[in-house]
Amino acid sequence: MLSDRHLENYADILWWGLTTARTRPFRKNDIVQVRFHFGAMRLAEIIYRHLLAAGMHPVMRLNPTPDMDRSFYRMSNQRQLVFSAPGDESLARRLNGSIFLTAPDSLTHLRDADPKKIGKAAVAAKPLRFILDAREGRGEYSWTLCVLPTAELARHAGISLAEYSRQVARACFLDSASPIEEWRQIHRRAGEIKRWLDGLDVVEFHVESATTDLKVRRGAKRRWAGISGRNIPSFELFISPDWRGTRGVFCADQPSFRNGNIVRGVHLEFKAGRVAQASADEGERFLKEQLGMDRGAAQVGEFSLTDRRFSRITRFMANTLFDENFGGTYGNSHIALGSSYRNTFAGDPRRLSASMRARLGFNDSALHWDFVNTEKKRVTAVLVCGSRVTVYENGEFRL
């Protein structure tokens, strides 16, 4: 439902995102992988052309269909479940960029699959992600992603495909005369807020809403990140906190679609940094199995806030990329259980070794799952001196 003009703008924005996210400039003959669903074929063709024109080597990869996913988790034996194709590791060690084009034909096709199998496959893929994470830290690699409208997304969002397409175009500035300049302006404004947040000598953040009362420890050597080009759209600012200081209750009022499953009405209680109790109105078994896939899956890897003045997303979109950037009336706060982000380390990311990550409380996991709360809330920073400063209220940073 997006026009060719929209798709050309999308391709330009994704290239801006990919180059902005990388700390070193791209060079001719760099390798860029494009992973896409069949429904994103036209955008993949446009990006392929753009990459060739830029002197890159595009590597195109079509994502499995819902039927393939069902067959894999129903039929695979233990060796097939953890299999890594020859060449995957070699490509990861040479890859300079990745663009992910999401256009799902189904959001709930794995609701009958064994959650343990889904978790095991995720853990098996972790070594490749570790290679890319290290390359990103050295400035040799970056990634970005986007969503294309599909009938399935529109159906779960409760709107028509035409309206879903309009929401995507508006949120990503695809209908703007100068979409790149729109993103550059948001990037600059977000930089001011990040510098303000980084200048506060914070011990912990306290999130309070009708259902949530959560304390998150900032941790040493942290900096705020976000609106860096890695996601299109992206309006959130986030930090990877010291997971060991998380305590209290967090509730997600937005449903979450993950690995062909839907989870709704999530309630998480934290003690001593870990989820002590997890429940959901729908999808509770899947939730608990995912949180048990490895040690870090039940620990926080990200704490995030979205300023409603940035975001053009005003409704539920049945997709995490959009829902975690919800603006609406009160913005949103979300946490992610699982892996932390290297780019929130306030130092040379090349020096963030596994032992240093553990010492500083950066979480490690094969999981990274966002849970979103859009309620009216206040976020207070508790400073080293003992005073308290409101940093976020009514959906806006209090700069």
Would you kindly provide a written description of the structure presented here, covering whatever features stand out?
By secondary structure, this protein is α+β, with helices and mostly antiparallel strands. The protein has two domains: 4-178, Thermophilic metalloprotease-like (3-Layer(aba) Sandwich); 181-397, no CATH class. Helix content is 33%, strand content 25%. The chain has 13 helices and 18 strands. The protein has helices spanning 4-21, 41-53, 66-75, 78-81, 88-94, 115-124, 126-137, 151-157, 161-171, 179-198, 284-291, 320-323, 354-360, and strands at 31-36, 57-62, 97-102, 142-147, 202-209, 213-217, 236-239, 247-252, 256-258, 261-263, 266-271, 274-279, 300-306, 332-338, 368-373, 377-383, 388-393, 396-397. The strands form four sheets. It has an eight-stranded antiparallel β-sheet with strand order 12-11-8-6-5-16-17-18, with helices on one face. It has a four-stranded parallel β-sheet with strand order 2-1-3-4, sandwiched between helices. It has a four-stranded antiparallel β-sheet with strand order 7-13-14-15, with no helix packed on it. A hairpin with a 3-residue loop joins β5 and β6 (213-217). α1 (4-21) packs across α2 (41-53), α5 runs parallel beside α7 (126-137) and α6 (115-124) packs parallel to α11 (284-291). The longest helix is centred in the middle third of the chain and has 20 residues, at 179-198.
